[in-house]
C-alpha cells in the first residue's frame, strides 16, 4: 500500500519536470481540466501535510472522496466530501465546473454530490491547502476574502487547526461537527458539537437534540469550570467573538499534528500525533467524568466528582424532592431553603469555584463592571444570578441569568465566582443563618428561623468597646464579654478571626440555640455579623461556669450537696431534652464542666453547641473522621474510632457526675495508677463510694443520693455504649429509690488512650470494643506492627494483661515500667529477637533485679527499631509522663499529635 502511494506520488511529480504551472495544479489543485478520478493519482497539499483521494472506510465497499494526513503511517481521514452520498462503484470523478462548483459524478455521469455558489468565476479551481482546507476560488487569486467555497465551512467529525466552529451572525450559517454513524459509515450520526452563541458563547455536545455536555461559557482564559488555560503546549484555543461571527477554534504552536474529533459514540477527543509511537495519542477526553453529564444534579444542584455521591445542593439550597434525592435521582434539583422575596429586598451571595451555569438564555454585556452588573440584576426580580463574563485582569463584563441555574460544577480548583439571588435572611448582613451546610439525611432542616440581629456598634457600646475589663472568659473560639444592652445583662461571645471554630460551628450554634428552648440550656438573644466579626449574644449568667466552682477550693464551698445534686439533675434534664425531646435530637459532643453555666440561683444551663451534631434519623450513632471534644470527657469508642452517639454524651455526663461529686477534675486528677474514673471504680468495687465525695462535703450531715449519683455516674461511663443508660433512664434513676444495676468496668481508664485516634491508627480493628483489655492488645499490636522484625504469635488473644496492669494492687507507679515489660515478654514468648536485642544493646541494664523506671524507657527511645514508628514514640512518651506522675499538658499532646501526623 505504502509502496503504491509512493509510486503515485512520484508519478504525479513527473509532469513537473516539464511544466511548473502544470506541476502546481497537478499536485494540489483540481481544475476544469484536471480531475480527481478514482483509481488515479491523489492530490496533495503543497507542503505535504494532507492529501485527497477516493477511499472506502472500515469494512464498507462504498467509495468516498476524502482527505487525510499524507505523511503518516495511519490513514486518518479528516474530511469527506460526499459523506451522505456514497458512490457504490469505483468510477467516481471529482470535477470543478463553471460557474465555480465542485461536482462529484458517478460512473454514468450523474451528479452525486456538489458544492454551491452564489457567484460565478472565470476560471474556477479547487485547491487543497496545507491546512487541510479545500477551497474553490478563481485561479491565481489567493486572497482569502475571495474564496467561493471551503471545506472548513463543512466539517465532518474533525476540527482542524484554523477551522471556525460557530456561527456567522450575518448569514446565520452554523458550522458544527457531527460524528460518523459508525466506523463504516461516515454519514452524520447522532452526536454533534457546537459553539453555541445564544445567550453567551459556550460549546455544547449534543446527542440528537439533547445536550449531553456543556463546556461552560468562555471566560477569556478558558471554559468556565476547567482549569486549562488557553495556552497548551501544542496549541492555543479560544472562543472568538466579533460583530459578524462567534466561533471556537485553535491554532498550532508547533509542528505537532493535532486534531479534535467527535467519535461516533459521542466522545470528544483531542489527539496529537507521536512520531516515536507512530500513533495518535489522546490528549483530552470529554465527557471526562459523571459531572460532565449535562445538568446531572438538576437546577441549583452542584456536581463535584470528588464527592460521593457527586451531587449536592448549592449552599443554602435543599433538594427539591428529598426522597428522590436519597434514591440518587437528582433530576429534580434543589430549591432555596428560604424563598425569595424580591419586594422586601433580596441579596446576592457569592459562590466560588463554580463552573458557570448554562448561559444559553443569559444576557451579557462585555463592557460593564461587576457593580453595574449587580445593579441591573438587582432591579429585575427575575434575574437569578450575575457574574463577570471575563475573568482576565481582575474581571470584567456582565452575565445575567433569568432562569433556574443549570449544570453547575463546583470544585476546589478552577471555576469562578457567581453571585446568586437569595432571600435577605440568608445573608450574613441581615440575618443569622450563615453558611450552614445541611446534611441531607438528617430530617428537616428547612424551617426558617429569625433571631434578632444587632449592629456591631450596638454591641461595641454595650461592651465598652470590648474592653478588657469586661472580658469574662476565653474559649477556644475567642473571648466572652459581659455587656449591658437596654438595661439587660448580656454575654457576648466574639468569634476571633483566628478561632478554630469555623463558620459551620458558628452557624450550628446559632441554629441549635434558636431551635432549642429548655430551662437547662443557655438562651440566645441574638447575633451580630458584620464583615469579619461574628458574635453571639446570650443571656448573662452571673455565676459563670461550673468548673470555677467545683474545682476551686474556696468556691466549692458555695455548692453544698443539695445544690450539686440539683445541678446534676438539671444537666441530666437538659441533656435528655437534647437527646430525646427537642425537635432536632442533638448530640452535644462537648459536654464538660466549663460548658455548664450557672444562673443566679445556681440552676445549670448547658452551653456551647458549636460542635453539636444532629442525630441521624433511624440511627443512634454516626462515625466521623474528625474527633472533636475535650480530652478527659471523650468516650473510648469516640476517641478511638470516631464513633459518636447519644451514648458518647452519656459518657461525658458520667464523668461530669463524678467530677461534681468529688470536686476533682478527671483531667487533672493525679494519682499514680489511675485517673478519677479509675479511682471511683476502685472505691465503688470496694464498697467505699462515699469516700469519693468532696472532702469538704463529707462533714455535712445530709448526703442522700451521693452513692446513687456515683453509681449512676459509673453506669454512664461503662466501656460498652450499649451498657450505658439513656438520659431519660438516668433522670429516672437519679430521682427514684429503686435498686440500681451494678456498674461494669468503665471505659477509658487511662487518660492517654483518649488521644488515640482512628486516623492515626489506620490498621486498627477491634472485633468488639466492649471486651475489656483490648486496648492494651491494640497497643501491643501496634507496637509490634510499627517495629518491623518483631512478631507476636497471637497478639489479641486475651485481655487479662490490661486487667492485671490496671487493677492489680501490686502494680504501683514505681514498678509500672518494669512489670509492663515483664508481662509483655511473658505474654509473647516468641520474641527472642526483641529479648536478644534488648540485652545486647543494653547490657548495663540490670533488668532482673530492679524495677526502676526511666532507664528502660530511655533505652527504648534510642532503640533504632522502635523508633521506626512514630507511634511507638508517641506511646512511650505518654507512658513516660505517666510513670513520672504527670499528666501531659495539652500543648504536649498537640506536639505529640503533630509528631505522629503522617
Ligand atoms: C514525513 O515524515 C517523516 C518522518 O515522520 C519526516 O522525516 C519527513 O520530513 C516528513 N515529510 C514531510 C514532507 O512532512
Ligand atoms: C449514478 O447515479 C444514478 C442516479 O443516482 C444511478 O441511476 C446510476 O446507476 C449510478 N451509476 C453508477 C455507475 O453507480
Ligand atoms: C445552494 O444554495 C442555495 C441558496 O443559497 C440553497 O438553497 C441550497 O440549499 C444550496 N445547496 C446546497 C447543496 O448547499
Ligand atoms: C421543584 O419541584 C416542583 C414540582 O416538582 C417544580 O415545579 C419546581 O420547578 C422545582 N423547582 C426547581 C428549582 O427545580
Ligand atoms: C453595555 O454597557 C455599557 C456600559 O455600561 C453601555 O454603554 C452599553 O450601552 C451596554 N451595551 C448594551 C448592548 O447594553
Ligand atoms: C426582567 O428581565 C426579563 C428578561 O430579560 C425581561 O423579560 C423583563 O421584562 C424584565 N423585567 C423588568 C421589570 O425589567
Ligand atoms: C419536613 O417538613 C415538611 C413541611 O414542613 C413536613 O411535611 C414533613 O413531614 C417534614 N419531614 C420530617 C421528616 O419531619
Ligand atoms: C469606642 O471606639 C470608637 C472608635 O474607636 C470611639 O469613637 C468611641 O468613643 C469608643 N467608645 C468608648 C465608650 O470607648
How does this model look, in words?
By secondary structure, this protein is an alpha+beta fold. It has 6 domains: 136 residues, Orthogonal Prism (Agglutinin, subunit A); 134 residues, Orthogonal Prism (Agglutinin, subunit A), CATH 2.90.10; 137 residues, no CATH class; 106 residues, Phosphorylase Kinase, domain 1, CATH 3.30.200; 206 residues, Transferase(Phosphotransferase), domain 1; 110 residues, no CATH class. It is 24% helix and 24% strand. The protein has 22 helices and 45 strands. An 8-stranded mixed sheet has the order 26-25-33-29-34-31-32-30, covered by helices on one side. A hairpin with a 4-residue loop joins strand 35 and strand 36. Helix 8 packs antiparallel against helix 10, helix 8 runs antiparallel to helix 14 and helix 10 runs antiparallel to helix 13. The protein starts with a helix and ends with a helix. The relative contact order is 0.04. The N terminus and C terminus are likely disordered. The structure holds 2-acetamido-2-deoxy-beta-D-glucopyranose (NAG) (8 copies). One 2-acetamido-2-deoxy-beta-D-glucopyranose binds next to loops. It catalyses: L-seryl-[protein] + ATP = O-phospho-L-seryl-[protein] + ADP + H(+); L-threonyl-[protein] + ATP = O-phospho-L-threonyl-[protein] + ADP + H(+). Keywords: ATP-binding, Disulfide bond, Glycoprotein, Kinase, Membrane, Nucleotide-binding, Phosphoprotein, Receptor, Serine/threonine-protein kinase, Signal, Transferase, Transmembrane, Transmembrane helix. It holds the Pfam family PAN_2.
Amino acid at each position: 500500500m505504502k509502496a503504491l502511494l509512493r509510486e503515485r506520488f512520484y508519478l504525479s511529480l513527473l509532469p513537473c519536470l516539464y511544466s511548473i504551472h502544470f506541476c502546481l495544479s497537478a499536485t494540489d489543485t483540481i481544475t476544469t481540466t484536471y480531475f480527481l478520478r478514482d483509481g488515479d493519482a491523489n492530490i496533495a497539499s503543497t507542503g505535504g501535510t494532507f492529501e485527497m483521494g477516493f477511499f472506502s472506510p472500515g469494512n464498507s465497499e462504498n467509495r468516498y472522496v476524502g482527505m487525510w494526513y499524507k505523511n503518516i503511517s495511519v490513514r486518518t481521514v479528516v474530511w469527506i466530501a460526499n459523506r451522505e452520498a456514497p458512490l457504490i462503484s469505483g468510477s467516481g470523478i471529482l470535477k470543478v465546473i463553471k460557474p465555480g462548483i465542485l461536482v462529484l459524478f458517478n460512473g454514468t455521469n450523474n451528479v452525486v454530490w456538489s458544492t454551491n455558489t452564489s457567484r460565478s468565476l472565470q476560471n474556477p479551481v479547487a485547491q487543497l491547502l496545507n491546512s487541510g482546507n479545500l477551497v474553490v476560488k478563481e485561479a491565481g487569486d489567493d486572497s482569502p476574502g475571495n474564496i467561493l467555497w471551503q471545506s472548513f465551512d463543512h466539517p465532518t467529525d474533525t476540527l482542524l487547526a484554523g477551522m471556525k466552529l460557530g456561527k456567522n451572525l450575518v448569514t446565520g450559517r452554523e458550522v458544527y461537527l457531527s460524528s460518523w454513524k459508525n466506523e463504516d459509515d461516515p454519514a452524520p450520526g447522532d452526536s454533534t458539537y457546537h459553539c453555541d452563541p445564544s445567550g453567551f458563547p459556550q460549546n455544547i455536545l449534543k446527542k440528537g437534540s439533547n445536550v449531553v455536555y456543556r463546556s461552560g461559557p468562555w471566560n477569556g482564559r478558558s471554559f468556565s469550570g476547567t482549569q486549562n488555560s488557553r495556552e497548551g503546549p501544542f496549541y492555543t484555543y479560544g472562543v472568538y467573538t466579533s460583530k459578524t461571527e462567534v466561533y471556537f477554534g485553535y491554532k498550532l504552536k508547533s509542528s505537532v499534528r493535532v486534531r479534535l474529533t467527535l467519535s461516533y459514540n459521542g466522545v470528544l477527543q483531542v489527539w496529537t500525533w507521536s512520531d516515536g509511537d507512530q500513533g495518535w495519542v489522546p490528549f483530552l477526553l470529554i465527557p471526562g467524568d459523571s459531572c460532565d453529564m449535562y445538568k446531572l444534579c438538576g437546577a441549583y444542584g452542584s456536581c463535584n466528582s470528588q464527592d460521593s455521591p457527586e451531587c449536592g445542593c448549592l449552599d443554602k439550597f435543599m433538594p427539591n424532592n428529598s426522597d428522590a434525592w436519597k434514591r440518587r435521582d437528582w433530576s429534580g434539583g434543589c430549591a432555596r431553603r428560604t424563598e425569595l422575596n424580591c419586594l422586601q429586598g433580596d441579596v446576592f451571595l457569592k459562590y466560588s469555584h463554580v463552573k458557570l451555569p448554562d448561559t444559553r438564555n443569559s444576557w451579557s454585556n462585555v463592557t460593564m463592571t461587576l457593580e453595574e452588573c449587580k445593579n441591573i440584576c438587582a432591579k429585575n426580580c427575575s434575574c437569578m444570578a450575575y457574574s463577570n463574563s471575563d475573568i482576565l485582569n481582575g474581571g470584567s463584563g456582565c452575565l445575567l441569568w433569568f432562569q433556574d441555574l443549570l449544570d453547575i460544577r463546583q470544585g476546589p480548583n478552577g471555576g469562578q465566582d457567581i453571585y446568586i439571588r437569595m432571600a435577605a435572611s440568608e445573608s450574613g448582613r441581615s440575618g443569622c443563618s450563615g453558611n450552614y451546610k445541611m446534611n441531607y439525611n438528617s430530617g428537616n432542616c428547612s424551617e426558617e428561623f429569625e433571631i434578632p440581629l444587632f449592629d456591631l456598634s450596638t454591641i461595641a457600646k454595650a461592651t465598652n468597646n470590648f474592653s478588657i475589663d469586661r472580658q469574662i472568659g476565653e474559649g477556644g473560639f475567642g473571648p466572652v464579654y459581659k455587656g449591658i444592652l437596654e438595661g439587660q445583662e448580656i454575654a457576648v461571645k466574639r468569634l476571633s478571626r483566628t478561632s478554630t471554630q469555623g463558620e459551620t460551628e458558628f452557624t450550628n450554634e446559632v441554629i441549635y440555640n434558636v431551635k432549642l428552648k429548655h430551662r437547662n440550656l443557655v438562651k440566645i438573644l441574638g447575633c451580630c455579623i458584620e464583615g469579619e466579626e461574628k458574635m453571639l449574644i446570650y443571656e448573662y449568667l452571673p455565676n459563670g461556669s461550673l468548673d470555677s466552682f467545683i474545682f476551686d477550693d474556696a468556691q466549692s464551698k458555695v455548692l453544698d450537696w443539695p445544690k450539686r445534686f440539683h445541678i446534676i439533675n438539671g444537666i441530666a434534664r437538659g441533656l435528655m431534652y437534647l437527646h430525646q425531646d427537642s425537635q432536632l435530637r442533638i448530640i452535644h459532643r462537648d459536654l464538660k464542666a466549663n460548658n455548664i453555666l450557672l444562673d443566679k440561683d445556681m440552676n445549670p444551663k448547658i452551653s456551647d453547641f458549636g460542635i453539636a451534631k444532629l442525630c441521624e434519623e433511624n440511627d443512634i450513632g454516626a462515625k466521623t473522621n474528625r474527633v472533636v471534644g475535650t480530652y478527659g470527657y471523650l468516650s473510648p469508642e469516640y476517641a478511638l474510632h470516631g464513633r459518636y452517639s447519644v451514648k458518647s454524651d452519656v459518657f461525658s455526663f458520667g464523668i461530669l457526675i463524678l467530677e461534681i461529686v468529688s470536686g476533682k477534675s478527671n483531667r487533672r486528677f493525679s494519682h499514680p495508677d489511675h485517673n478519677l474514673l479509675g479511682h471511683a471504680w476502685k472505691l465503688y468495687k470496694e464498697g467505699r463510694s462515699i469516700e469519693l465525695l468532696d472532702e469538704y462535703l463529707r462533714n455535712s450531715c445530709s448526703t442522700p443520693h451521693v452513692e446513687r449519683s456515683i453509681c449512676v455516674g459509673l453506669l454512664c461511663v461503662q466501656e460498652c455504649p450499649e451498657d450505658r443508660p439513656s438520659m431519660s433512664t438516668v433522670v429516672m434513676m437519679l430521682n427514684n429509690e429503686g435498686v440500681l444495676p451494678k456498674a461494669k468496668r468503665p471505659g477509658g481508664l487511662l487518660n492517654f488512650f483518649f488521644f488515640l485516634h482512628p486516623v492515626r491508627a489506620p490498621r486498627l480493628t477491634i472485633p468488639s470494643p466492649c471486651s475489656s483489655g483490648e486496648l492494651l492488645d491494640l497497643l501491643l499490636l501496634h507496637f509490634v506492627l510499627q517495629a518491623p522484625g518483631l512478631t507476636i504469635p497471637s497478639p489479641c488473644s486475651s485481655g487479662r494483661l490490661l486487667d492485671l496492669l490496671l487493677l492489680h494492687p501490686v502494680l504501683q507507679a514505681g514498678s509500672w515500667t518494669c512489670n509492663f515489660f515483664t508481662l509483655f515478654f511473658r505474654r509473647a514468648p516468641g520474641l527472642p529477637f526483641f529479648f536478644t536485642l534488648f540485652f545486647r544493646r543494653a547490657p548495663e541494664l540490670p533488668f532482673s533485679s530492679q524495677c526502676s523506671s526511666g532507664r528502660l524507657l530511655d533505652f527504648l527511645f534510642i532503640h533504632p527499631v522502635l523508633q521506626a514508628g512514630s507511634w511507638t514514640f508517641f506511646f512511650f512518651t505518654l507512658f513516660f509522663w505517666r510513670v513520672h506522675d504527670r499528666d501531659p499538658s495539652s500543648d504536649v499532646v498537640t506536639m505529640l499529635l503533630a509528631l505522629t501526623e503522617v
